Predict the structure of Major facilitator superfamily (MFS) profile domain-containing protein.
Amino acid sequence: MSQDIEVRKRYEMTEESSPDKEEMTFSSSETMKTSVEFMLNRKRKWLIFNTHLNAAIYSSCFWVQIGVLPYLSKKLGADPVVFGYLQTTFAVVQLCGGPIFGRFGDLFGSRAALVLSFAAAAVSYSILGLASTVSMLFLSRLPSVFMHAMQGSQMVVTDISDKDGRADALGKLGVSYAIGMVIGPFIGGLITKNYGEQSAAFFAAFFSCLSIILAFSFIPGNTKAMSKEEKPATDDTENSEKKDGGVFSVKKILHLLKIPTVFFLIVVKVITGIPFGIFQSMFSLVSMEFFKLEPQQNGFVMSYVGCLSIIVQGLIVGVLSRRFSEAVLLRSSICVIALAYALLYMVTDIYQFCVVIIPMVVGGTTLNVITTSAMTKSVVIKETGAVLGLSMATNSLIRTVSPTLGSIMYKHYGWPSFGLLGLVVNAAVAVFLFIHGKETF
């Protein structure tokens, strides 16, 4: 039984005092209540700090190895087709692992899930650092089945935040990830330039091990016990849940898809996400061939996008979520995305692109945060990990099909086809939401 549950029990026992002592216990009851809330709030703040720190470290390590992978694969003799297979392998493995990882977090706690994720990352990056053949590159992708630290961090934030502030909390967590996205490629580039690609991979593995220590030391075993929404489950309830299907229960995962809100939001995410997945998967090629950017200039553009993401998730999403309902924000964000794709269709140089990317980041980031927040609110606290796994799995599904679709479109229809596809798809979804969409989630 966790310390938080013991504190709550002591408070409840104080409240159940006999009537003849009511006057004496009233004051102590109020004092105990204040003490409990103070202790829980302190623990939540410390927990949030450690979760954000680990998210930034994880993101930095991930983007270090992402920058290393193309150069190392080329060095080992992999052609662009093989590199595409490597990306697809990663996406498929992540797709399979997301829902399972979510169930693991629900059953064994967020700390165990995060430790598992960081350990998987450390193993993956270590194999990448040791890689001397293309086969070892593919082998390095397999541990990523459990490499879902961002999902684990979202579990923690979801467990300890209330429903009204959840979108803001998830958005701020995205800021920490975006910080890693900005500094990771920079650090990876410096290490690669001075010490080689494999040294950068070992650097990422070392800091992933550091994250294991931080997670094990400072994150409680059961963050659901700190939930503001529901009382924590007892040991008997947890044992019963573990017996009912376990981590690999497909039935339990599919059960979530039967929840109307969850199914509705996942369908919206997949449909609107495919154009963006295509655009994202092909941008490196487009920047090189269409915009004629050098690698350093491409890095500046990626950092610029990362900074935009920090501003949107850290400031804009929180303000919008407090003023408007999630249903309104969902429709509005898709309209903004459709407008951005319409402008993207007309882009001819990198300066125009840097302007057009602003509404795309604002709309896309808001859409992602709002759909994730709404899905977690539609299930009980003991199922939030699994539903976050489904949400992450949609991103992996999109990454699985996007590179192939993107290469076909770019080869036959050129760069403007990405903007046209995004406009048509998002405009159609926006019209549907205005006619048949929900008013609340």
